[in-house]
Amino acid sequence: MIWNDDFETLPREAIASLQLKRLKQTLDRVSVAVPLYREKFSAAKVETAQIKSLDDLRRLPFTLKQDLRDNYPYGMFAVPLDEIVRIHASSGTTGKPTVVGYTRRDIDIWAELMARAFAAAGSHRGDVIHNAYGYGLFTGGLGAHYGAERLGASVIPMSGGNTKKQIMIMKDFGSTVLTCTPSYALYLAEAALEEGIDIRKLPLRIGIHGAEPWSEQMRSEIEEKLGIKAIDIYGLSEILGPGVAIECVEEQHGLHIWEDHFIPEIINPETGERVPAGEKGELVITTITKEGIPLIRYRTRDITRLIVEPCTCGRTHVRLERMSGRSDDMLIIRGVNVFPSQIESVLFSIEGIEPHYQLIVDRADNLDTLEVQVEVNEQTFSDEIKVLQNLSHHITKDIKDLLGVTCKVRLVEPKSIARSEGKAQRVIDKRLDK
Ligand code: DLL
After folding, report:
1. pLDDT band at 95 (very low <50, low <70, confident <90, very high)
2. Which has the least CB within 10 A, 54, 61, 266, 278?
3. Domain co-membership, 246 together with 134
4. What is the pLDDT of residue 233?
5. Are residues 82 and 219 in the same domain?
6. Residues 314 and 339 in one domain
């Protein structure tokens, strides 16, 4: 179902003119209200009045995560604090978190965009939405919550953790939609089986998963193990939180980004130049309706491409291809660029292993090493050593053939890799401590 027909199916020319109008308003606002933008624009020798077309956007400087850190906590807010009604923050691996603030109107738009997202995923009023994204500074929990209420569904504010209770509630309350990270969805299915419950037999229909990279193969695992349709949702706290883009249930191919609120661009992460239409690169987003913390050309570090072909669902907003990783998560192993999601795709295409893995990167004698730890299923685990050896050779060979990197595969016992209730930690890079 389309939640907001007026905006979601707007003709392309109308989207472009709305974007230009809103972009100009945003530039006028930030160049007055945010000292960092005054400085950036003057350093780049551009005046906002010179931005006369969407193409002119490329003349503006980028905004980086570091800019938010340098202006911690409120230095990039474009309104006084008494207009901010909510504050969220995302914790990086190091240092201070990135802080974002929302005005009442920002919260209202966020709820609208998340309601659109739920509807695009096939959810509607009458659904019981089991929200297992974390509530707190993380945007996942509250972002999905407000959207579910706006949709008119019944939302269960579970938050993450307490897995046994999640399963009991899901069963007793008749949850029909599950919102959580893809890794947690698989963990829930596994934990349910241990409780003697087959989630496939429950009323659950749809899973809305994001907040971490996942592969097409992982989607199949989730759909099979939970008996649902698994939909990819994308977002980041700096831009909004969940609900920046989502797949439609009709195609499950590419995530519609709400272009009446965001302008996406794809750049070459090395040169900063826009890539030719349809090519892969780093996603850069400009917000054009945000009041609390509008961001101009924010470098997301996420790697994707734009799908501009019209979609059968009727929405006219462009689609982002499933994220293939982050430019800063890309591992360089003996000179070869590897994204964890590529290894995931290889692993999940092989029989006998479970969708739980971890990559250990290290350096020995000045050479990078990659160890792929992956769980085997109960049946394979009880097989003869020879069968296990063959399996491990098979994985090593497939990874070498497809990615060009030699790795050591360690098959581990079922359930021995730590499960995550939020974002999974897939990579342990020991080189960083050396
Ligand atoms: O993860 C917001 C969110 C919550 C999105 C719930 C979807 C669902 P942050 O904690 O700021 O915000 O992390 C944002 O997570 O830049 C991506 O690298 C990654 N990410 C988010 N969604 C996806 C996805 C939330 N569907 C960062 N596929 C982003 C791949 C994703 N990566």
Report:
1. confident
2. 278
3. yes
4. 98
5. yes
6. no
The CATH code of the domain that includes 384 is 3.30.300.30
CA of 90 to the centre of ligand 1 (A): 10
Per-residue confidence band for 322, with pLDDT thresholds at 50, 70 and 90: very high
Residue 1 lies in a domain: no
Q: Give which of 287, 234, 242, 282 is closest to 260, Cα–Cα.
A: 287
Max distance between CA atoms of the chain, in angstroms, equals: 72
Confidence of residue 326 (pLDDT cuts 50, 70, 90): confident
Mutate to test the pocket of ligand 1, among 212, 321, 322 (most ligand atoms within 8 A of CB): 212
Ligand 1, atom 27, lies closest to the CA of 236
**Residue with CA closest to ligand 1 atom 21:** 211
Answer yes or no: is the C-beta of 241 below 6 A from any ligand 1 atom.
yes
Measured in angstroms, how far is the CA atom of residue 242 from the centroid of ligand 1? 7
Atom of ligand 1 nearest to the CA of 255: 26
Q: Which of 317, 325, 141, 156 is nearest to 241 (CA)?
A: 141
How many Å apart are CA 263 and CA 265, to the nearest integer?
7
Number of folded domains in the chain?
2
| Ligand 1 close to Cβ of residue 90 (< 6 A) | yes
pLDDT number for residue 73: 97
Backbone angles phi, psi at 325, to 5 degrees: 140, -175
Write down the pLDDT at residue 231: 98
- CA-nearest residue for atom 29, ligand 1, is 236
pLDDT exceeds cutoff 60 at 93: no
330 pLDDT band, cuts 50/70/90, is confident
Q: Is the Cβ–Cβ distance between 37 and 296 less than 8 Å?
A: yes
Instruction: List 302's β-bridge partners, or say none.
Output: 326
| Cβ atoms within 10 Å of 266's Cβ, excluding its own | 22
300 Cβ below 6 A of ligand 1: yes
Return the closest-CA partner of residue 186 out of 424, 388, 376, 355.
355
210 lines ligand 1 (CB under 6 A): yes
235-249 tens-digit pLDDT:
999 999 999 999 999
Q: What is the pLDDT of residues 109-148, one digit of tens each?
A: 999 999 999 999 999 999 999 999 999 999 999 999 999 9
- Nearest protein CA to atom 6 of ligand 1, as residue: 140
- What rounded mean pLDDT belongs to the chain? 95
Please indicate, yes or no, whether residues 233 and 370 belong to a single structural domain of this protein.
Answer: no
User: How far is CA 417 from its chain centroid?
Assistant: 22
